[in-house]
Design goal:
The chain is an alpha+beta fold. It folds into two domains: about 5-50 and about 135-205 and about 300-380 and about 425-430, FAD/NAD(P)-binding domain (3-Layer(bba) Sandwich), CATH 3.50.50.60; about 85-130 and about 210-300 and about 390-415, D-Amino Acid Oxidase, subunit A, domain 2 (D-Amino Acid Oxidase, Chain A, domain 2), CATH 3.30.9.10. About 35% of the residues lie in helices and about 25% in strands. The protein has twelve helices and 20 strands. The chain has helices at about 15-25, 60-70, 70-80, 135-145, 195-200, 260-265, 270-280, 330-350, 355-385, 390-405, 405-415, 425-430, and strands at about 5-15, 35, 55-60, 80-85, 85-90, 115-120, 130-135, 150-155, 160-165, 170-175, 185-190, 205-220, 230-235, 240-245, 250-255, 285-290, 295-305, 310, 310-315, 320. Helix 3 crosses helix 4 and helix 8 (about 330-350) runs antiparallel to helix 9. Residues about 95-110 have low confidence and may be disordered. The structure holds flavin-adenine dinucleotide. Flavin-adenine dinucleotide binds near residues 15, 39 and 331.
């Protein structure tokens, strides 16, 4: 730490999936970049038998960005699985009442007003809808790539404690002892996640709410093959998703009440598998194993009131978090990173101040509308499917059935979910 340079053009706080993408997108420029990360970084190699509990459904737009910054080969060389189809359904609810579903509710489920929709990448002439990739694989591949840039310095562990604006630079103080003077930069970027310290230090507020839900994650083996399909069943307590992994298993995300989630995490394997089978139904046959640990994450909607301030910008979860039901969180963050990189490089190449608020506002205007639209859509879906009011249930299931028959509407939904709609940054428009 004693010998590291102190002055940079850009300091990125957070080397998670979004911060690392941004560093790679800026890496081939002449900018001097520091990336500060508080936590130990993931190891380069991924053990064969140990799947990360945290996986992400990566859209085609994110794939293009990872390809453009040179990190995609590092992901394919480790492991991932393409999914070509998606099956979503709302097959009636436990017969008992409208209370949140718990494992004590008994089947059979009412076949009443069954609604389902099926997406196939072949319908829009694409090979895949996206890829399921472990978070640590994404991060490790990005960090590999980042280390290859001579103008990028990765400082870890480095926990940001203060951010102070001066006339034409930002001063960033670290928690480490022995740090004689703060690091300075023309621009500081908060890529430090939902509890962003950078956002707090900049005095930027957030709006939003808790969903009063947790997402339980686990890895599960099923009797029937997953057929490279992502499966999602809507239950009154929240959606239950099965994401197809490379080794034939599925990674699940089960959104449910916090009490139920805590019970699911604490259950022994046999009880958990029985609860899962009862909740998911028989589309993948019996649940045969779920070795390893489980974890539950609180689910919130949170949106920063501003993405930028003079010499400061927020990307990824530091700017927005949303319900994981359509797997869009990190994908929006990767689009933020690609967009901000384009805005910064445009300013730099034309001799303008990369930290000027006018420069950064272009990024904010570009991304805020798209992010808000996706957050509103996910929030609306979550509410629509959580409601057990019979007429609404009939309406949504009729809607699902009608949409399933309407090819142009389905194609439009697929293109949005794949991140291929809207005003994309240049590197997301490239053909991979
Ligand atoms: C159950 C669940 C399932 C999900 N599934 C999907 C999915 O399928 N697809 C999808 O797109 N999204 C999904 N998401 C959302 C996705 O995980 C997040 O959007 C994503 O992890 C955000 O990445 P990030 O880099 O912005 O933030 P983070 O991953 O939170 O990274 C922030 C980094 O900053 C570092 N940091 C924090 N504070 C400091 C500090 N003071 N100094 C230095 N470093 C600091 C942290 O250590 C961390 O490395 C899911 C979320 C949940 C909860």
């Amino acid at each position: 730490m004693e010998t590291m340079p102190q002055d940079y053009d850009v300091i990125i706080v957070g080397a998670g999936m979004v911060g690392a993408t941004l560093a790679c997108a800026l890496g081939s420029s002449a900018l001097r970049i520091a990336v500060l990360e508080a936590q130990a970084l993931p190891v380069d190699t991924v053990p064969d038998d140990d799947i990360d509990l945290r996986v992400s459904a990566i859209t085609r737009a994110s794939q293009r960005i990872f390809t453009a910054v040179g990190a995609w080969p590092g992901m394919t060389a480790r492991r991932m699985n393409a999914f070509r189809e998606m099956h979503v359904w709302d097959e009636g609810n436990p017969t008992s009442d409208s209370s949140p579903y718990t494992p004590s509710c008994t089947p059979p489920y009412t076949p009443f007003h069954k609604g389902e929709i099926h997406f196939d990448s072949a319908d829009i002439g694409e090979n895949t809808l996206g890829h399921i990739i472990e978070n640590r694989v994404i991060q490790a591949a990005l960090l590999d790539r980042l280390r290859a840039f001579s103008n990028v310095t990765l400082l870890c562990p480095a926990n940001v404690a203060s951010v102070v604006i001066a006339a034409d630079s930002m001063h960033v103080g670290l928690n480490q002892t022995g740090q004689s003077r703060p690091l300075t930069a023309k621009l500081v970027i908060g890529a430090d996640g939902a509890h962003s310290r950078v956002r707090q230090l900049a005095g930027i507020n957030t709006r939003g709410w808790s969903y009063a839900q947790k997402g339980v994650v686990a890895t599960v083996k099923t009797e029937l093959p997953h057929r490279d399909t992502a499966w999602q069943r809507f239950l009154p307590s929240g959606p239950l998703a099965f994401l197809p992994l490379h080794d034939g298993r599925c990674s699940i995300v089960w959104s449910t009440t916090p009490e139920h989630a805590d019970r699911l995490v604490a259950m022994d394997e046999a009880t958990f598998l029985a609860a899962l089978e009862q909740a998911f139904g028989d589309k993948l046959g019996k649940m045969t194993a779920s070795p390893g640990s489980r974890a539950a994450f609180p689910l919130n909607l949170q949106h920063a009131t501003a993405y930028t301030a003079p010499r400061l910008a927020l990307v990824g979860d530091a700017a927005h978090t949303l319900h994981p039901l359509a797997g869009q969180g990190v994908n929006l963050g990767v689009l933020d990173a690609a967009t901000l990189a384009e805005v910064i490089l445009d300013a730099y190449n034309s001799g303008r101040d990369i930290g000027a608020h006018g420069t950064l506002r272009r990024y904010e205007r570009w991304r805020k509308g798209d992010n808000l639209a996706m957050m509103a859509a996910m929030d609306g879906l979550k509410r629509l499917f959580s409601n057990d009011f019979a007429p609404l249930r009939w309406l949504r299931n009729s809607g699902l059935r009608l949409t399933n028959q309407a090819t142009p509407v389905k194609s439009l939904i697929m293109r949005h979910a794949m991140g291929l709609a809207g005003d994309l940054p240049k590197i997301a428009r490239r053909i991979e």
